[in-house]
Amino acid sequence: MDDRSALARLDRRVADCRACPRLVEWREEVARTKRAAFADWEYWGRPVPGFGPADARLLIIGLAPAAHGGNRTGRMFTGDRSGDVLYQALYDVGLASQPTSVSADDGLELYGVRVTAPVHCAPPANKPTPGERDTCRPWLVQELTLLRPTLRAAVVLGAFGWQAALPAFAEAGWTVPRPRPAFAHGARVALDGLDLFGCFHVSQRNTFTGRLTAGMLREVLRTAAEAAGLR
């Protein structure tokens, strides 16, 4: 089985996961009740797998799907304001075919980039528990293992993702420094053949307050793309 087939198989398995009762109940309840603005949508209402090519050189790791974003559309960072910011920045630096991501069939392509999260189900209040994070970690470990032949850089959005990603990289075979490096915007950590970058999350709280500007995000993505050999 080639890497593309193996990753597609992993994505299907992720989408069928029911390991965390609280998250299963929440994602399915949201899919039933919906938001008035999306009343005519058939919500995905399942775990959201990663998005992007199997030979990605750059991985972007978020937190978890949004209740009315990825949980609605079935694609990471698609259909919410965080995704609007992220995909616009990816487009601006030449890593995406279009600046918007509104549905899973909108034609968006990522160039050498894959987007994933340490928690694949939408959590209540956008806050997974540490136990849910740890239960979901094997999916990220398997994804990293499949991507390892080509992966050269990763951008982690936010402290939660950073705390989840470091042990996953270690389990997937990379040597992570001890003590584990602290999260910071602009942090850069060299693993074996991979550069890990920290970036504030593209949450509305960060983007509306100016803690993370479009320019700051583009700068991290450009640097990571250069480290990955995409520029």
From TrEMBL:
Claim: DNA repair is one of the keywords in the record: yes
Keywords from the UniProt entry: 4Fe-4S, DNA damage, DNA repair, Hydrolase, Iron, Iron-sulfur, Metal-binding
Coiled coil: none
CDD domains: UDG-F5_TTUDGB_like
Domain Uracil-DNA glycosylase-like positions: 49-221
TM segment ranges: none
InterPro entries documented for this protein: UDG_Type-4/5 (IPR051536), UdgB-like (IPR044147), Uracil-DNA_glycosylase-like (IPR005122), Uracil-DNA_glycosylase-like_sf (IPR036895)
Annotated family: Belongs to the uracil-DNA glycosylase (UDG) superfamily. Type 5 (UDGb) family.
Record's protein name: Type-5 uracil-DNA glycosylase
